[in-house]
Amino acid sequence: MIEVYAPASIGNFAVGFDALGAALAPIDGSLLGDVAVVSAASSDEFICSGEYAHKLPSDASENLAYQCLVHFRAHVAPNMPSVKLELKKNLPIGSGLGSSACSVVATFAALDKFAGTKLSQVELIELMADFEAVVSGGRHYDNITPCYLGGLQLTGDLIPNKSIALPVDENWYYVAAFPGFSLNTAKARSVLPKELSMHAGVEFAQRLSAFSSLLLMHRFDDALSIMQDHIAEPYRAPLITGFSEAKASLPALGAEIVSISGAGPTLFTVCKTLKAAQQCAQWLESNYINEQGFCHICKLDNDGTRQLTVL
Ligand SMILES: Nc1ncnc2c1ncn2[C@@H]1O[C@H](COP(=O)(O)OP(=O)(O)OP(=O)(O)O)[C@@H](O)[C@H]1O
Ligand SMILES: N[C@@H](CCO)C(=O)O
Predict the structure, then answer these.
(1) Pick from 298, 266, 263: nearest CA to 150
(2) Angle at 103 between CA 157 and CA 28, to 5 degrees
(3) Are the C-beta atoms of 236 and 260 separated by less than 8 Å?
(4) How far apart are the C-alpha atoms of 262 and 251, rounded to whole Å?
(5) What distance in Å separates the CA atoms of residue 153 and residue 132, rounded to the nearest whole number?
(6) How far, in Å, CA of 199 to CA of 302, rounded?
């Protein structure tokens, strides 16, 4: 049996729309992501379990994880023995935490290991991006690659090996707050402008390249000083109840950055101290999330997708 865990991720990371993503690891040691379990069986079988399984279509053919199994058997490993695939759906749907990416990455990574196909990093990332695009309203790598590789990734189709890992200040904490309601990624993409002005395009390029370069030079405070989302946040904030109030309130509690995680509605902050992160988490639990929501104080998950057990 192969059991693979794939961590939640922050798409965009404020300054890099569709181009930056960061994997998350709660500091309390809990797992925030999906798990795929593959074991030998007399015939192919799919089970979806976990806290959010009931939020997915009951028809297996509509579940991304099962679709990955069908594709993998047809196009990657036609001679793979029959398998039982269980997806433990532990991330909410439409969360802004890379939920569909977690399912896709965990499933393909587990199948690749079980079948012994030894796909390359690029082959796996392309396969994963193909599937995540099916439901996300566009092909973007900024959940897939941090989820798979871990850390903070500068990522895109034109980048060699599809991704470049960027350093961050190891002292940074990330508070991720899922409010308890969903926001469909395709809907959140539909409200964005179809084109950018020359000025907006140049500024986006300057901001992303300077942010990435400053991180590589370990000028972390300078990187934070330009870490703003002028591309998606202005259009998506109105879709997320409470976001604007949080953005106005959290800096006084020590949040250096407050922005939308991926397509939302999850909000994330960057804090330089645990005390600031705890203060922000407390405010978010009181003012931003409902009974279906949650809030985690995290560091980056530098391990990415990994096997939990091999039996
Ligand atoms: N295993 C799966 N995990 C997540 N979504 C799935 C899965 N299988 C099918 N889906 C469908 O894919 C769509 C995913 O929607 P969307 O991309 O908005 O959210 P997400 O990927 O779950 O969350 P996030 O905003 O964190 O990326 C939903 O309609 C959901 O029903
Ligand atoms: N870059 C994607 C992230 C989705 O999680 C978007 O903002 O639409």
Answers:
(1) 298
(2) 105
(3) yes
(4) 20
(5) 17
(6) 35
- Averaged pLDDT in 10-residue chunks for the chain of 311 residues: 97 98 98 98 97 96 96 95 97 97 97 97 94 81 98 96 97 98 94 97 98 98 98 97 98 98 98 98 98 98 91 64
Mutate to test the pocket of ligand 2, among 10, 13, 15, 17 (most ligand atoms within 8 A of CB): 17
Q: Which residues contact 168 (CB under 8 A, 6 or more apart)?
A: 22, 151, 152, 215, 220, 300
| Residue 201, phi then psi, degrees to nearest 5 | -65, -45
Percent of the chain that is helix, strand, coil (3-state, to 5): 40, 25, 35
Question: Which amino acid belongs to residue 302?
Answer: N
E strand or H helix that includes residue 129: helix 121-136
Single-letter amino acid code for the residue at 280: C
Beta bridge partners of 6: 34
| ipTM > 0.90, yes or no | yes
- CA–CA dist 172, 183 (Å, integer): 27
The reply to whether ligand 2 has any atom less than 6 angstroms from the CB of 18 is yes
Sign, CA torsion 302/305/306/309: positive
Q: Are strands 45-49 and 83-88 parallel, antiparallel or unpaired?
A: parallel
Assess contact for 166 and 15: CB atoms under 8 A: no
**Which residue CA neighbors atom 8 of ligand 2 most closely?**
263
Sequence ranges of the domains in the chain: 2-166+302-310, 173-299
Return the ligand 2 atom nearest residue 232 CA: 7
- The finding on whether 240 has its CB within 6 A of some atom of ligand 1 is no
Looking up tokens 């926001």 gives 183
Contact (CB, 8 A) for 241 and 179: yes
Architecture of domain 2-166+302-310: 2-Layer Sandwich (3.30)
Check if the beta carbon of residue 183 is closer than 8 Å to that of residue 293.
no
> What is the assigned CATH class of domain 173-299?
alpha beta
